[in-house]
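Following up on my earlier thread - several people asked me to post the actual chain instead of describing it. Fair enough. Here it is, all 129 residues.
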Amino acid sequence: QAENVRGQLSRNMEKFKVDCISLEDGRKRNTAIRQALVCGFFMQIAHREGEKGSYLTVKDNQVIALHPSCGLNVQPEWVLFNEFVLTKRPYTRNATEVRPEWFSKTPSILRFELIPGWQDEEGIAETYK
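Reply from S.P.:
Thanks for posting it. Predicted structure:
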């Protein structure tokens, strides 16, 4: 199955004349993967609120926490998450750290204000247009 997907991607890259490059540095590869995930799942980003481990989702301002099994040893300022676990408290599993400068790569028509009044030096947090 993975070879089939790789073949499809290779054909599409050739069709659109996109160079296929290999990242030898594992850290760069991991960063590139997380940047791609932000582009596809930008509505599943959350920002840490305070020091108690709570996060506020960008999409609907829901308060969540990182599940102990999420694999992160730290509580980063921004996370991209995939799955909710509903117990006494809403948790998210499958989370990874993301950086706000990556948000500018999301489709411009879908940019939104991440936190009221927050805007970085590039002005990437915008309201809906």
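The radius of gyration is 17 Å. That should answer part of your original question.
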